[in-house]
Design a protein that fits this description.
11% helix; 9 strands; 6-stranded antiparallel sheet
Length: 125
């Protein structure tokens, strides 16, 4: 998809995060406190990214997950004078956030994700 198409499809906030690698302010994300069961999807293309079973409260102000689907890629990020690992959607190359090695003991991973980069598909009981 071309840049102009992304600008039409996404809100300005989604565009800034998914396409320009921005970050939403901590504690402001619409999915931060979501407790529903289901699948977190890419806000750009709808690819399935994180199961609600992998979500945990990290206290950081962003939705956090200890595991991801095969649709989440990782690459080095040296922006802002830091060395981090960026996570992105493999289907549309949308920026999601970063992964850190300080997560729960189950995996040791903390995928720190911008809520604005996500959609959510609730599983009905």
């Amino acid at each position: 998809m071309k840049d102009a198409d992304w600008k039409k499809k996404l809100t300005p906030e989604q565009y800034a995060i998914l396409r320009e690698k921005g970050t939403e302010p901590a504690g402001t994300g619409k999915l931060l406190h979501n407790k529903d069961k289901g699948m977190y999807t890419c806000g750009g293309c709808g690819a399935e990214l994180f199961s609600s079973d992998a979500k945990f409260d990290s206290g950081t102000g962003w939705p956090s997950f200890d595991n991801a689907t095969e649709n989440v890629g990782k690459r080095p990020d040296t922006s802002h004078g830091m060395q981090r690992i960026e996570v992105y959607c493999k289907k549309c190359d949308g920026h999601l956030g970063h992964v850190f090695e300080d997560g729960p003991k189950t995996t040791g991973k903390r995928f720190c994700i911008n809520s604005c980069a996500l959609g959510f598909k609730k599983v009905e009981k």
